[in-house]
Amino acid sequence: MNEISVFWFRRDLRIEDNAGLFAALSGPYPVLPIFIFDPSILDKLENKKDARVEFIHAALTQLKSEIQKRGGDLLILHDKPLHAFQSLAQKFSIKKIYTNHDYESYAISRDDSVRQWAESQNMLFESFKDQVIFEKNEVLTGQNTPYTVFTPYSRKWKEKLANSEWKQFESENLTNYIPASFEIPSLRQLGFEESGLSFPSLIFSDDLIREYQIKRDYPGLDATSHVSVHLRFGTISIRKLVKRALGKSETWLNELIWRDFYFNITFHFPHIGQGLAFRKEYDRMHWRNNEQEFDAWKNGQTGYPIVDAGMRELNQTGFMHNRVRMIAASFLVKHLLIDWRWGEEYFAEKLLDFDFSANNGGWQWAAGSGCDAAPYFRVFNPYLQTQKFDKELSYIRKWVPEFQEFHYPKPIVDHEFARKRVLAAYKEALG
């Protein structure tokens, strides 16, 4: 058996500017690239038309084609990761495993088990920073503690960026792959079907970036890049996007920094991955958790058109405009007094760009329980939000065309009543 390295693709489904892949292809052994569909993750997806699996499958098909052009091929496995590597080691003489870092608790423990096994077999296991610009302990306060407020974090982040030699990796120019040919399993073989959703393109203009600050809050405009799903699965590199943002839009750059910030929170405060509030005193909240009201929220039938428009957009496209995400999340928590974790779980099931760290960060922000959160006493008024951000009602007309019809539901709760009720509930819980 020839000696080889393995490169393990996960959240980095691209040839271009891939840190771990660059290291593997620059190493002494020819590289076998693999991707593992992990049943521990797939089996939790009840919807067998989950668009994210379809997106990954399409990205892998593209990735396979790019690797084939360079003389290799992508091996796609459907197995528990440790077992997949144990099986591979019976067919190949693996000297080294390369991959890129992940920051969620399950991923860290998964990687640790593969690393320990690899070392017991005299293989090297090496992981690289790829999906963020700065990670772990690279951006810390003056007291060497992690930041929990975004604004000072972003200042330090930008200062560090300006003073560091960050580079892109020309992994697309390297061809040190093992010659091979593998079949790609179909979606059906993985137990899934096509969703019928369309996926956003990676092509968007510099003008969109330049105008982002002015237009980003208006859901009726097509003024956002929709690049989040590509970032989520790594079909584009964060370094490429930061390079595009510099000098064009501080606001667009800040959105990329928020992403790094939430990854850092996930890494440094793993208790949030166990369903706990970032600020633990908020776990004393008494939620109403009315299931009929939750269903009305999920289905866009609350009688508040801006909320219903957002939920319908989510259900039909797998996307929701960021301003409307805040309004819909605030409504569930503050107007209906439903546990933010219910909403977090629903978004996790529906969002094409679902990423635990950003989703959890957003929901805890809405609930007031997170780092750098909106104070609990700020309650979005859906009517004022509509006046401010959808004055012409173009977004609402698109998703809730019947909002002025007799059969459209009456508001599920009175805004002023809900506001007083939630403030009383928070005061009681927080003493």
Total domain count: 3
Whole-Å distance between the termini? 67 Å
Mean pLDDT: 96
Structural class: alpha/beta
Order of helices and strands: EHEHHEHEHEHHHHHHHHHHHHHH
Helical proportion? 40-55%
Per CATH, which architecture of the largest domain? Orthogonal Bundle
Strand order of the largest sheet: 3-2-1-4-5
CATH fold description of the largest domain: DNA Cyclobutane Dipyrimidine Photolyase, subunit A, domain 3
How is the biggest beta sheet arranged?
A: 5 strands, parallel
Return the CATH class of the largest domain.
Mainly Alpha
Count of helical segments? 19
**Low-confidence region ranges:** none
Task: Describe the protein's architecture and organization.
This protein is of the alpha/beta class and 431 residues long. It folds into 3 domains: 3-130, Rossmann fold, CATH 3.40.50; 132-165 and 205-268, Alpha Horseshoe (Serine Threonine Protein Phosphatase 5, Tetratricopeptide repeat); 272-430, DNA Cyclobutane Dipyrimidine Photolyase, subunit A, domain 3 (Orthogonal Bundle). The chain has helices spanning 19-25, 39-42, 51-69, 81-91, 105-120, 150-162, 206-210, 212-215, 228-233, 238-245, 250-268, 291-298, 305-317, 322-335, 340-350, 356-367, 382-389, 394-399, 415-430; strands at residues 3-9, 31-37, 75-78, 93-100, 124-128. A 5-stranded parallel β-sheet has the order 3-2-1-4-5, with helices on both faces. The longest helix is centred in the first third of the chain and has 19 residues, at 51-69. The radius of gyration is 23 Å and the shape is globular. Belongs to the DNA photolyase family. Residues 3-133 form the Photolyase/cryptochrome alpha/beta domain. Keywords: Chromophore, FAD, Flavoprotein.
